From TrEMBL:
This is Leucine-rich repeat-containing N-terminal plant-type domain-containing protein. The keyword Signal applies. Transmembrane segments: none annotated. Keywords: Glycoprotein, Leucine-rich repeat, Membrane, Receptor, Repeat, Signal, Transmembrane, Transmembrane helix. The keyword Mitochondrion does not apply. GO terms for biological process: defense response; response to other organism. SUPFAM superfamilies: L domain-like. It is found in: Membrane. GO terms for cellular component: membrane.
């Protein structure tokens, strides 16, 4: 969101020439051939077939369609399309359906921002995408794209935002992804991607947001992830990683959200996670984590959502009553049979869904001195329900798809 706002800001900062008379100056018009290409794209894509009539000068500031932004050329005085948005807006009538075969004609535009989201575009991402070399932000999310992520995409060196989420893309992420050194936001979540996370992501040192959740990624994430010092959001739930939790994640000082749930992680929670002082959300639920909860987790002063449920964690919970109160129902430790609460905080045990420890003053150092729960608690954690993040694909009545 921040990045999108930045873009909007950048675009609106560009001085606009607003015409006040009906006589169009050359600098108010588009290059005639570019205009014809734009018309032909719109006529094939738009449900509004009267594009030529309704928008004789689509770039004219006062008359342009909401999905278009234009800028004055540097070498000529014409207006050029710098942004094209094809998004399904429920309350607006500028709904488009996009055909795959029309991609090539788009290479004509030096657009910086291209959004084709929640349309029903299908097929592969064409290699010709590399010709859109001015792209700074590419959003193809919530479509029906299939096939692999083309390596040509990695030639778009100016990309700051790349969102391919909620499609059906398959295969591995090309190692060439490391060429996108400007990238701040990368979202590949909810696809069918496989393989391991390529080592080259360590070169994406501008990254602030990376989402790879709901895919088929597996294996140890690259050690070089620790280089991404600006990373604030690492969203990787629901992948068959089946490895130990990477200690590298503990070296990302700016991390605010770390989501690694449902991913077959085993071993202990690395103590170094306690050094993620800006962490607000830690989701490790539904893995195969063992051992104690690291003592320092209770020191994370910004955390407000901690889910460690459905693991094999054991021993005494290292949180004081202040911590337990602060997180309230956003703390979930249920489904860890061997976890127990210090009797001094026994009052809270029902809410937490854990039992009370049968020794008050010891902490588990190893398995031979394991603290056992006193009794089975009937308590259940109050479930924290959030509105489902589902976008319903409404029938758009697309012509020609
Ligand atoms: C959208 O189009 C329909 C039918 O063409 C029309 O009835 C409706 O008023 C339009 N809505 C807006 C917001 O323009
Ligand atoms: C934590 O966040 C604050 C506010 O966003 C920021 O000023 C600070 O630098 C961050 N801490 C680290 C270690 O990055
Ligand atoms: C937690 O914070 C307290 C007070 O700052 C400190 O004494 C203690 O060593 C910290 N514990 C860990 C495990 O970092
Ligand atoms: C924790 O995760 C479990 C399993 O996914 C889920 O059912 C529960 O609602 C979550 N709890 C919280 C507090 O987010
Ligand atoms: C495990 O705990 C037992 C009993 O407290 C102790 O004697 C033993 O040294 C511990 N082993 C290790 C490896 O810490
Ligand atoms: C306390 O835990 C030990 C195992 O560490 C177990 O043998 C004992 O029965 C437990 N006591 C109670 C009262 O549950």
């Amino acid at each position: 969101m921040l990045i999108i706002l930045l873009f909007l800001l950048l675009l609106t900062c560009h001085p606009r020439h607003v015409t006040t008379n009906n006589h169009l100056q050359p600098q108010d018009t588009m290059d005639p051939s570019e205009l014809q290409t734009l018309y032909s794209i719109m006529e094939t894509l738009s449900l509004d077939q009267k594009w030529r009539l309704n928008y004789p000068n689509p770039c004219k500031p006062s008359a342009s369609w909401v999905g278009i932004e234009c800028k004055r050329g540097v070498t000529d005085s014409h207006l050029h399309v710098t942004r094209l948005d094809f998004v399904f807006h429920q309350n607006q009538n500028n709904t488009f359906c996009v055909k795959e075969q029309n991609w090539k004609s788009w290479t004509f535009f030096p657009a910086a921002i291209l959004t084709i989201s929640q349309t029903r575009i299908s097929g592969r991402i064409p290699p010709e995408i590399s010709q859109l070399s001015s792209l700074v932000h590419l959003d193809l999310s919530y479509n029906q794209l299939t096939g692999a992520i083309p390596v040509e995409l990695c030639k778009l060196r100016n990309l700051v935002g790349l969102d391919l989420s909620y499609n059906s893309l398959t295969g591995p992420v090309p190692n060439a992804i490391g060429q996108l050194g400007m990238l701040q936001k990368l979202d590949f979540s909810s696809n069918l991607l496989t393989g391991s996370v390529p080592n080259s992501v360590e070169k994406l040192t501008s990254l602030v947001f990376m989402a790879l959740s709901n895919n088929g990624f597996h294996g140890k994430p690259p050690v070089g992830l620790a280089n991404l010092k600006g990373l604030e959001y690492l969203i990787m739930d629901n992948n068959p990683m089946s490895t130990e939790l990477p200690t590298e994640f503990g070296h990302l000082p700016k991390l605010q959200e770390l989501r690694l749930a449902d991913s077959g992680y085993s071993g202990e929670i690395p103590a170094i996670f306690s050094q993620l002082s800006n962490l607000t959300t830690l989701s490790l639920q539904n893995n195969r984590l063992t051992g104690n909860i690291p003592l320092g987790l209770g020191n994370l002063s910004h955390i407000y959502h901690l889910n460690l449920s459905k693991n094999w964690l054991s021993g005494e919970i290292p949180f004081d009553s202040g911590f337990l109160k602060r997180l309230g129902k956003n703390l979930d430790l249920s489904g860890n049979g061997q976890l127990c609460l210090n009797p001094l905080q026994a009052y809270d045990s029902v809410k937490l869904g854990v039992d009370v420890c049968n020794r008050s003053n010891a902490r588990v150092g190893n398995s031979s001195s394991r603290i056992q729960p006193l009794k089975k608690s009937e308590g259940r954690v109050v479930e924290f329900s959030r509105p489902a993040l589902f976008f319903v694909f409404l029938g758009l009545g697309c012509v020609g798809i």
